Each structure stands twice: as structure tokens, then as C-alpha cells.
Amino acid sequence: MFLEQGVTPQNHFYKYIIGSLIIIVAAFVGQVPMMVAVFFKAATDHKTVPVTNEGLMHFFDPNTTLFLIMLSFVFALAGIFLVIKNIHKQTILSVTTFRPKMDWSRVLFSFVLWAVIGITTTWIEWFISPDHFEINFKPIPFLILAIIGLVLIPIQTSTEEYVFRGYLMQGFANLSRNKWFPLLMTSLIFGLMHLFNPEVTKMGYGIMIYYIGTGLFLGVITLMDDGMELALGFHAANNLVGALLVTSDWTAFQTYSILKDVSEPTFGFDVILPVILIYPILLLIFERKYRWNNWKEKLTGDIN
């Protein structure tokens, strides 16, 4: 099965600590182009170098900022692949899926399903509360955004999935020799990774229910399906549709999206609705389509 592919006698947990540090270093190297661009623009435009994350996010044109931020994930993904092949002596496929090859139909189905849901719910929200939105569409900047997004956002989301649902999930399986511990640990770490997002500052720590719950959902579909394909498609659709459809002044990324949310952000039932209602419905859809069974064993069983 998927987790067992990473559980081998030579795959000691300390290797995952070393590998994680290498991946972090690769991500930092990927941030060098942004730092160079910041200092160059500050020098040529006689501006002060931003010292806060908010200042950095508004220092460049939104498309330039998005491009430079996404570059770090290219380096991080390369670091993940190097670590998997050279430290753990595994194939990339073994950290992706239990199937003999990548099932792109699963990636596509999950992507389209969540993209349709995301577009539909945004349209409904716009219809119910039109005063919460402004038309933000500018053809040329949007086209550039679409090109950057289609190329780099799937790399960003795939990097996060390979780290959490692939690499670390198999790593914690080596440590615990069961399935529930990797599922809970990767979900918790995935959620905490978003702790310093501006959304948390605006809405409070209650929004962590959404982030941790999303990590848990992605972990569950990975374990039940014995592969990351569904998680890869879902995550790519979530971030790409979000970047193209709606932006605001208080989210992690500002983009030349079609709409701009101008409402005052608050933590309410709508924030956790995906976790308590939509994700369970998606699990039922996936269960029916891919004939999942034996939930208890796949999510909490021991690894021999």
C-alpha cells in the first residue's frame, strides 16, 4: 500500500529530518531571486526596502509578486525529488501513488470537481451579497496572471502535497508504524504552516479549523485512495481558481483576479462550512466512484 512503500529497514526517521532541512534550504534558495529583485527595485526607484510581509506583498506589481513567490516552490520541488532519490533511494512514483503509474484521470476528476464547486459557490456568494464584491477584471494583467497561474500554481500545490501527503506522511509512518499518527501529524503541521497568513490576523485563530480540516481531508483521500492523485487535483483547483476568481487586500496573495472581495472579513459558519459539510460530501463522491472500503484499517491500521 501507499504508506508501506516508504517503510523500509534503511529508511530511518532521522533521514526525513535531514531531508526536510534540505528541502527548507532549497526553498530559501528559491527566495533569492525575490530578494535580488527587491534590492534592485529599491535602489533604482530610491525606495525603502520593505521590512514586513505586507510591505513585501505590495512592493511589486501583483503578477510580479506572484511569479517571484512561486519560484521558491520550483526550487523546493526539485529539492524534494533530489532527497527522495538520493537520501531515501526511492522513486518519485513510490511517494506519489501505489498504482503502477500516475493516474491522471484521478487528478483531472478531482480538479474539475473542486473547480466547479469553487466557481459555483463564488457565484452564489456574489449573487447573494453583490455589495461584498467589486469587478476587478483587467484583460491584459488577467491574461498574464492566468499564464503564471497555470504554469506555477500547480507546482506550488504539488510541492505542498509531496511534502505533506507524500514525503512526511511516509516519514511519520516509518516512525510510528501505524496510519493514524502520520494522518494527524501531517494535518496539524499543514494547518500550522498557515498560522502567519494575514487571514489569521483578520479572522482569528478559529480559521485554523479550516486549515487543519483541509489538511485532514487531503490526508484521508490520500490514504483511502492509496495515492496523492486526488489531493494533487483538489489542491491545484483550490489555489488556481482562488487566484483567478477573487482577491482582496487582506489575503496572502493579491492578484489581478476577476473579482475583489471588499467586505470586512469575519470568522463565521461559512468559513468552516467546507470542513463540516462539503468535504464529507466529497468523500462520499470519491467513495462511490472509486469503491473505497475498509475505512478503519486504511486510516488507523498498523503497518507491519
Please explain how this structure is put together:
Residues 143-241 form the CAAX prenyl protease 2/Lysostaphin resistance protein A-like domain. The chain crosses the membrane at residues 21-44, 64-84, 104-128, 140-159, 180-197, 203-223, 230-247, 267-286. It is a single chain. With 304 residues, the chain is mainly alpha-helical. The chain has one domain (3-300). It contains 12 helices and 3 strands. It has helices at residues 13-30, 32-44, 53-57, 62-86, 104-128, 139-176, 180-192, 198-203, 208-225, 229-245, 269-290, 295-300, and strands at 133-135, 246-247, 259-261. A 3-stranded mixed β-sheet has the order 1-3-2. Helix 1 (13-30) runs antiparallel to helix 4 and helix 5 (104-128) runs parallel beside helix 10. It is globular, with a radius of gyration of 20 Å. The chain starts with 12 loop residues before the first helix and ends with a helix.
Alpha-carbon distance between the two ends: 11 Å
**Which word captures the global form?**
globular
Biggest sheet, spatial arrangement of strands: 1-3-2
- Summarize model confidence as the mean pLDDT: 94
Total tally of structural domains: 1
Separate helix tally:
12
How would you sum up the major sheet?
A: 3 strands, mixed
- Element-by-element helix/strand order: HHHHHEHHHHHEEHH
Which spans have pLDDT < 50 for at least 5 consecutive residues?
Answer: none
Radius of gyration: 20 Å
Proportion in helices: 55-70%
